[in-house]
User: Fold this.
Amino acid sequence: MIHADKTNADTAIARAASADSQPHETTTREIDIQLPPAFLRREFVERRLIAERLETLLAPYRVDIRPHPASVRVSGPRLAVALARMAIEAVAARGASLAVEEFDALATGIIEHGLAHDLAFRLPGLPRPVRTLTVAQAAFMEDLLKPRNDFVVGAGPTGTGKTHIALAAGLNLLNTETVRKLVVTRPYVLPEGEEMTARKRADTERLGQFEPIEDELIEIVGHEEAERLKAFEKIELIPVGRMRGRTFNDAFVLIDEAQNMTVRTLRMVTTRVGLNSRLVVTGDPDDVDLRTDEPSGLAHLLGLLKHSDIAVVHAFETQQIVRSGLTASIEALFASAPGERPRPAARDAA
Assistant:
């Protein structure tokens, strides 16, 4: 986070947020930002650094930033336009030209502050705002909430917030009665050295299997509300083996840790989705605990989706890990090792 010129930056953030009071609407927006003529000519006509770096920093959103005689015009999704405005006005308040590294540091701090405060997701049914920590998380959340997106995939390294964001979206849709039930399933991964048996293959619930999901639910809505929703069968945590033969209508179905399902299993689970339901698949294709002779269902699915438009795919990167700085550093070390598979390509957020 950049602390220099914090007063000017905060003023720019407040002004931009006030100008865009509903940043999470799914429509696009076009705005003109009035700038001092000398600054406009130097930074947006001669250098173009601000526009080029913001287009990169705001990915997967697609924003267009073009100079006009007395202003710079920004167009794109509403949230991305609001973030671009915050960054441009904060830089303009400083006045001086910045090197790439200086601009990236300042703009990143402005974007993170905006996402966590003025542009946090205030969703019905959740006691606190969902404060996305990266642009990737915000784009993922917006796609999860869009009515037309029946199938969304979030793939990427541990600690990028995929499961947390998906559960928050599902709880919101449950509260607004867009869906009647939140269904979560995840595979049980055998500890190293443990043998597979017929009973284990049935994949009935085991101690600790859903602890990560329980932790996220408690963090989002609190222990009492999470237990109430489960007691009234509004939330159902189902082992993979109990998914066979089920059909989930009017449901938000989250398949977590999908990289540890075989192709056959993931095919079975994804086809449980019935009428008026949403399907979300999350996992890390580079963290597979299956036997070496068993291909991962998630990697297979991602390959199929490259040639299909039935799903919106979000690919998270190592630099977007938010669990902790240490987790990000450890994951980067492992990801840099020879033989690591490349991350899946993501579709730009509309």
Summary: The mean pLDDT is 85. The first helix runs from residue 6 to 19. Strands lie at 28-34, 64-67, 71-77, 151-155, 181-185, 235-237, 251-255, 278-283, 312-315.
